[in-house]
Amino acid sequence: MFQHLSFLHDTFPSGFLWSSGTSAFQTEGAWDQEGKGPSIWDHFIHSSVNANSSARTANVASDSYTRWEEDVEALELLGVRSYSFSLSWPRLFPDGHAGSQPNAAAVDHYSRLIERLLQSKIEPIVTIHHWDLPQVLQENYGGWKNHTLVGLFEEYAAFCFRTFGGRVRYWLTMHNPYLVAVHGYGTGLHAPGERGGPSGSLIVAHNLIRAHAKAWHTYNTHFRPTQKGKVSIALGTHWVEPRRGQATADNIELCQKSIEAVLGWFAHPIFSDGDYPVSLKTKHGATMPIFTPEEKLWVQKTADFFSLSFGPNNLRLGQNLIQYGQTVTPDLRRVLSWIKLEYGNPRVLVAEGGWFSEAKVSCIAVFSFPAIKFDGVQVFGYSAWSLVDAFEWNYGYAVRRGLFYIDFSQQNRTRAPKTSAQYYQRIIADNGFLSDETFGEVKGRFPCDFHWGVADSTLQVKNRKTDFIVEMSDNGADIVFCCCCRSTSTLSHHSLLTPVSTAGT
Length: 505
Prior knowledge:
Klotho beta, 37% helix, alpha/beta, 505 residues
């Protein structure tokens, strides 16, 4: 499978864009300060909990709107070459209309952030829209169900290009539109909480694709000649493959359809022929929106590189898309190889990599390594998600994905590096995985009856600056792997630690 293990001790391509990322809603806080209007996520959360309960809302979150300089200092500590963050549409335009006067405080805030990043030689990767649609657009138009938002998004994107584009080389129009369409307007699990089913999701996805394409054409025509930047869209996916011993032709075809139903839904129109995958059109029939011949030509090739979001939200959703004989796995290498084969080997930015267990952030980077070295995938950057602990959407603060720990009970929201941050810092400094001479070479064989496997359900245990992974073995014993000292023991060895999150359940 891996050919050999030399990739564990080698470097990434020169100039590789090491990064970390955040989104505005999850980290900024200051939800109603300095002219910001409410987003659909503000409304969604405040409608279900007491709005004064900061433990259940993103009213303060990581306080990054105020403590943005501390975030930059965290980036400097990591040594990253880029920072992926999003702009808040309702902060810039509380009424949602970019034709109106922008909120000057918001413009100044993002300008200061970009300038400070550039001073620190950190490349800004800017997402125009990461789920936080202005609530007023939901109320007045029905949100992304309404084609009117395609034009409104184009105006908003044009403002962002015009205002910040002279200092930004990499743009992402939106983040993981699949989850917006499916969970926001289909199942109702995400904001705005609508349960329109598959038909509602299809309409929303159609408008999101057209909004992205319109923004790309606006940049390509009016801004690219002078700004020389690149524009893409961050697409999310799971990975599904046949179970061992069940790789029949039918089973492989089902896996292909599963990926086409998630990643291909958006990637095929944009990176291929401007239309939806045949399997999707067959599945949904007359309810599937149609691109006209003119629209197909207009939508296709509207991305300058492939931007991939590979995180836990899509993995969990993928569990519902498989049938007997398949399994969902966090195999980034195979996803990247699929993208190469399906879409003609585009340059790829992993815009979101990382899982609910923070100690696995670096492990996901490992899986992109063989894709580059052995499979020839043109990965040019990797963003470990996320920079700091944040408000994790439906999970609130029960889940921690940050490289830097934040105690949300404390007003100062101090950032403290975890061992995952220290390990990522080392990878960046080495630009890869250099041989560790402090560990001697060990040769030998495992017992014949040794049970090889991978654990999907892990319990994150934390002592502020130290990460542990706890795995439940078949006999019920808790096995602890310490990411700091790389030791293993039973749970009693670290019995004073407090569990803070659960993954894979």
